[in-house]
Design a protein that fits this description.
With 348 residues, the chain is mainly beta. The chain contains three helices and 29 strands.
Length: 348
């Protein structure tokens, strides 16, 4: 009887272990990160922006999000500034672009002490452009109201295999001042690429550098969005079904970080057309769906365990990110929000 009970118990433990594990990633069942909670904070109104394909948090005017759709043609090329509840604050009409209308992601970041907005005009469902992929960029304006017109600069790039790639994920790292770009593969393995941000590339076609393959092509191969926290410590990349999270070790390059096995955010629930992810800070990010009707905007908030956040004195730390002389976040035990408020780690 005892022997049978032992076998039953072992079987139950194995069963529970399988249920508790995350997706298979390169032959490993990922650890589930249970530190995030999800709540609806707003609605992606189609009257404000049809089919939101990208979100990024404003760094110039904290508390707002930049959003864009994936079809931007003629004189209707624009991004909008919205509140987290989904209401419209300001519209920015885009001019001076080279005409690519398949915008798939947006990011914000700091370069030479200035805030920038980056737009990834690199969607290619029909695989026909090859080296006509673009990152539009401009200095981020203050968010007020009404409509503003901005002429963009742009970087044109291609891939090292000289082939066409469909892409929906643009990330920018404030620490290295480098773009990370993940392609979107339906049948096969997605790959992460890098490209340093420079304002003097001119019209020459740049070639992105292959960093690493992402996953094994069976569970994490339809990538739709991603972002890096302002302090550079966390990187998240999502498909419609999963969000995976990588933690930077000290001041290493994210090219090294992403080669380690990530964890899976347990709180994320599949968004049928989920194509957006935007970090507010090191503890909070937003997602929404590229749906044809009004849809939900979700806010994910991470509860920080004290033991995990303590940094050994011998460990290299990611340097502080400054915007207009303001610390975005410090990892020395005291945290500062984007409005300059000071927080003890126990109350984040």
């Amino acid at each position: 009887m005892k022997k049978k009970m032992s076998i039953l118990t072992i079987g139950l433990v194995i069963s529970l272990g399988v249920c508790a594990a995350g997706i298979n990633y390169n032959g490993t069942n990922l650890t589930l990160n249970n530190e995030f909670t999800r709540s609806q904070c707003g609605t992606a109104y189609k009257s404000v922006m049809p089919e939101i394909s990208g979100l990024a948090c404003s760094r110039t005017t904290p508390g707002y999000l930049w959003a864009h759709g994936d079809e931007n043609t003629g004189s209707n090329k624009k991004i909008v500034a919205i509140k987290p509840d989904g209401t419209l604050a300001m519209t920015v009409k885009i001019t001076g672009d080279p005409g690519r209308d398949d915008w798939e992601d947006i990011a914000t970041g700091v370069y030479n002490n200035k805030n920038y907005v980056f737009i990834g005009a690199f969607g290619d469902n029909d695989l026909k452009f090859k080296d006509a992929y673009y990152i539009y960029y401009f200095e981020e304006p203050a968010i007020t109201s009404g409509t503003k017109e901005i002429a963009v600069n742009y970087i044109r790039f291609g891939y090292p295999d000289n082939k066409a790639h469909n892409t929906e994920t643009l990330l920018y790292d404030n620490i290295e001042q480098v773009f990370y770009i993940a392609d979107k593969v339906k049948d096969g393995i997605c790959t992460l690429y890098s490209l340093p941000f420079r304002t003097n590339y001119g019209t020459n076609v740049q070639t992105v550098t292959k960093v690493t393959e992402l996953g094994n092509g069976t569970k994490f191969n339809f990538l739709t969005a991603g972002d890096i926290t302002p302090d550079g410590h966390w990187m998240a990349i999502k498909s419609k079904k999963f969000v995976l999270l990588w933690e930077r070790n000290g001041s290493e390059s994210l090219s090294e970080t992403v080669k380690r096995t990530p964890v899976q955010i347990a709180a994320y629930s599949e968004e049928t057309q989920g194509e957006s992810l935007a970090w507010l800070d090191a503890t909070t990010f937003y997602t929404t769906s590229d749906a044809k009707n009004d849809d939900k905007i979700y806010k994910y908030v991470r509860s920080i365990p004290t033991a995990v956040e303590q940094t050994p004195s011998t460990e290299k730390k990611v340097k502080k990110v400054m915007v207009n002389g303001q610390v975005l976040i410090s990892r020395d035990g005291t945290y500062y929000d984007l409005l300059g408020g000071k927080h003890d780690r126990h109350h984040l």
